[in-house]
Amino acid sequence: MRIVGIAGSNIGSKTRTAMNYTLKVTREKYPDADITLLDLADYHMVFSDGRNYWEYEGDTKYVTETIMAADALIIGTPTFQASIPAALKNIFDLLPINAFRDKVVSIFVTAGTAKHYLMVEQQLKPILSYMKAHIVPGYVFIEEKDFHRKEIVNDDILFRIERLVEDTVLQVNAVASMQQAKDAAYDF
Prior knowledge:
6-stranded parallel β-sheet, 18% strand
């Protein structure tokens, strides 16, 4: 199972802090999984210009091909101006419409205030649905007050991240099982 964690911004530390904890939990619970972190702050991404994702070069090609090869994506994103960051939107623009078909996608969001919780429901989930993702229904919303000195200090958030990881892997297994059943229906 290939799991890719996407820290969906090129600035800030809270999303990366939460992603580091999420992938640590994932590695501990599922040591056989192939886990990759894509922190968009670490890559020089070009803006989408309409080409196929494999036609790009450098970091852009690496990031998009890593996403396309994944079985599951854990997307962590901050909320900027009540929306997703441009760096994350650019990732979606670089990929084809069916990029997330047969992929499981789970989400956590960092935000300064609880007022931004609807961003996931009104913006991020529709994009993922349009791109054919199997979206893990529950997501983790992490506020400014849940962090202290680049650590998550709210035990409920830590528990919910652990649950998100478990739900992600369970859904990957369910999607694989459904695909096997579909494939078995054909005798060729």
